[in-house]
């Protein structure tokens, strides 16, 4: 079961990934608000909607395997994210104790303790790391604020086996620049980063739908499986999506 914490009138994200299937960012109301909250669904409305939906699913005997927070942007930028996770854990425990709670996040908000604490309460915090190089993160992910790979990796280490690392591999060009996070140099640094974190699992994938950047190309499945083998030799499970 998917849960979107974000307004649906545009993409709400502090990344503007050049491969994002949701498209590129339009001017972001949450950024323009300069600290003021606009248009986010209220915590109580989310609670009521989850309560109602889980009640129906319980009555029909079709409870979800996973409750996943994703949507059209970064869920952890919701100003009440931590409280919403507390609510979800409570509702899950009441209606669907066998269901897991998952969050798809770009890992940019881990500097906020309440976000890290909230993610630790979930069963599957799935956190993005597309490269261990600052320049590649800047090119691929187009972050709204400057972040460094070392900063993200250090914050991911707080999770260790509590988290899943998700990486998208892609190649091509963007604005005249070469894009390829599967070079030997990239993979060597990325492997070291994975070993520094030692997550419960690594998910690797490539583009599967149309992207806003037409000069990007899928990585062949053979290459993805080879990358997976490099990580699996360290006894870290890898899921490959081709």
Can you put this structure into words, describing what you see?
It is a single chain. By secondary structure, the protein is of the alpha/beta class. The protein has 2 domains: 1-125, 2-Layer Sandwich (Transcription Regulator spoIIAA); 129-242, TIM Barrel. It contains 8 helices and 10 strands. The chain has helices at 29-32, 43-60, 81-95, 113-120, 134-141, 149-157, 184-197, 221-232; strands spanning 2-4, 66-70, 100-105, 124-128, 164-168, 171-174, 177-180, 201-205, 216-217, 238-241. The protein has a 7-stranded parallel β-sheet, covered by helices on one side. Strands 7-6-9 form a 3-stranded antiparallel β-sheet, covered by helices on one side. α2 (43-60) packs parallel to α3 and α3 runs parallel beside α4. It starts with a strand and ends with a strand. Mean pLDDT is 93; it is low at 33-37.
Summarize the structure.
With 242 residues, this protein is an alpha/beta fold. Helices cover 36% and strands 18% of the residues. The strands form two sheets. Strands 1-2-3-4-5-8-10 form a seven-stranded parallel β-sheet, with helices on one face. A three-stranded antiparallel β-sheet has the order 7-6-9, with helices on one face.
């Amino acid at each position: 079961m998917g849960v979107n914490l974000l307004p649906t009138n545009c993409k709400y994200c502090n990344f503007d990934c050049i491969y994002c299937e949701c498209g590129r960012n339009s001017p972001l109301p949450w950024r323009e608000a300069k600290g003021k909250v606009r248009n986010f669904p209220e915590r109580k409305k989310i609670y009521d909607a989850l309560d109602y939906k889980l009640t129906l699913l319980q009555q029909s005997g079709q409870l979800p395997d996973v409750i996943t927070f994703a949507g059209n942007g970064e869920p952890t930028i919701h100003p009440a994210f931590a409280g919403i996770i507390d609510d979800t854990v409570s509702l899950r425990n009441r209606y669907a104790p066998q269901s897991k709670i998952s969050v798809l996040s770009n890992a940019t908000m881990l500097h906020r303790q309440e976000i890290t604490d909230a993610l630790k309460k979930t069963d599957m915090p799935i956190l993005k790391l597309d490269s261990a190089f600052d320049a590649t993160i800047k090119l691929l992910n187009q972050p709204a604020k400057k972040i460094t790979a070392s900063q993200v990796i250090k914050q991911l280490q707080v999770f260790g086996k509590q988290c899943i690392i998700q990486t998208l591999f892609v190649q091509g060009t963007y604005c005249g620049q070469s894009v390829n996070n599967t070079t030997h140099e990239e993979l060597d640094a990325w492997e070291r980063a994975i070993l520094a974190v030692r997550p419960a699992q690594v998910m690797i994938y490539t583009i599967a739908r149309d992207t806003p950047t037409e000069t990007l190309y899928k990585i062949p499945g053979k290459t993805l499986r080879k990358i997976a083998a490099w990580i699996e030799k360290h006894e870290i499970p890898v899921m490959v999506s081709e």
